[in-house]
Amino acid sequence: MAAESILVVEDDEDILELLRYNLGKEGYRVTGAGSGEDALKAMQEKPPDLILLDLMLPDLDGLEVCRRLKQDGRTRHLPIIMLTAKGEESDIVAGLELGADDYVTKPFSPRVLLARVRSILRRRAAGLSDDTAAVKIHDLVIDPQRHEVLVQGEPIDLTAKEFRLLNLLARRPGWVFTRDQIVNEVHGEDYLVTDRAVDVMIVGLRKKLGPCGHLVETVRGVGYRFKE
Hints:
Number of domains: 2
Structural class: alpha/beta
CATH superfamily of the largest domain: Response regulator
């Protein structure tokens, strides 16, 4: 059974209890906070292993809580999954830009949420420290040291930017990257690239990947992720 601790920041008591039940059933140690202020106080006592953070809170909203946590060296690296109302695309993008790791829209499936939690905690435990190791997913192999990509054993000719983009997405499958995050990682900060240019790069990358092109998924209104 899992032993990680999870802080659920949610002012709706019914949703909080639903999350307590489902997470507890999986063996996670769950604590709750009904407001942004309570969440920040809980951080001072003992930071959890992961935070489920509702964006609509009665005092400090979830975005402000996320901002403060990511600005604090003690909590900067804590994984955050945002809970958002359906259609709040601008808030989702803002949260991801602030450093949140993922999001789940309400109403949500407990099974989907648990899968997201397990995935993020598994990657956190792995550390993601070795960015030079080759990545092997299905018929796709990405080798940063050789700067080589193989699809079904055949080498694929990618530009340097396409390689950096694929390597970024594939090393964090399931994680959603906004277009701005992609630009910063691939081109560097302050590089002026339109959303359309990122979309064109994705289309070209999918085409070159052929049978593995479907692994690069579009998250409508938000950005892109690599299929888990």
